[in-house]
Amino acid sequence: MRSGLPVALPGMRIGLLGGSFDPAHEGHVNITEAALQRFRLDRVWWLVTPGNPLKAHGPAPLRERIARAQKLLVDPHVVVTDIEARLQTRMTADTISALKHLYPGVHFVWLMGSDNLVQFHHWDRWREIADMVPIGVLARPGTRLAARNAVAAQVLRRWRLPVEKAGLLADSPTPAWVQVNLPMSKLSSTALRRAKGERR
């Protein structure tokens, strides 16, 4: 059943960008637009999570975070979703597994910043994630080198695509991943929350 879920047709290439988006900001928009272009995606879905298991404190209410994210976006190829709340999944591996079952024939790509690749080996069933979908890594300030030397990067190094083949990522057999460098944005949700608190 896909009630309330985004529409996708077999053969489409869809990037999945998960996170708390607390709050969403132009940095998220920038990496999304870059992913659409560099990985030749038809759509990017923002998976606004009900809560991040790796974070000690809960985020702002889900509806508030989704509303803010929608205000930021003007590109019709980007869809803000509450998929994890609807599917009642908390772990990325479970979400991806459910989406692959609900959307047979769709080519999903998991998107992450290089800062997330550094800690990817701490994620629940991270090897299973890499076996289910190709992974597109987008460089973030200060973590390009750390990401290259990350535990997950070393374990998966034989399946890394050269940058010039980034456009083939969505159609590549798994495991497959690529890291692309982007113009740097130092915006982060943490910094924005801190600044908002300081203004108060």
TrEMBL record:
Pathway: Cofactor biosynthesis; NAD(+) biosynthesis; deamido-NAD(+) from nicotinate D-ribonucleotide: step 1/1
Molecular functions per Gene Ontology: ATP binding; nicotinate-nucleotide adenylyltransferase activity
Catalytic function, reaction form: nicotinate beta-D-ribonucleotide + ATP + H(+) = deamido-NAD(+) + diphosphate
Superkingdom of source: Bacteria
Gene3D superfamilies noted in UniProt: HUPs
GO-annotated biological processes: NAD+ biosynthetic process
All residue ranges annotated as the Cytidyltransferase-like domain in the record: 16-194
Pfam family, one: CTP_transf_like
EC number(s) from the headed UniProt entry: 2.7.7.18
Keywords tagged on the record: ATP-binding, NAD, Nucleotide-binding, Nucleotidyltransferase, Pyridine nucleotide biosynthesis, Transferase
Xref: NCBIfam families: cyt_tran_rel (TIGR00125), nicotinate (nicotinamide) nucleotide adenylyltransferase (TIGR00482), PRK00071.2-2 (NF000843), PRK00071.2-4 (NF000845)
Function: Catalyzes the reversible adenylation of nicotinate mononucleotide (NaMN) to nicotinic acid adenine dinucleotide (NaAD).
Similarity annotation: Belongs to the NadD family.
Protein name per its UniProtKB record: Probable nicotinate-nucleotide adenylyltransferase
Annotated organism of origin: Paracoccus caeni
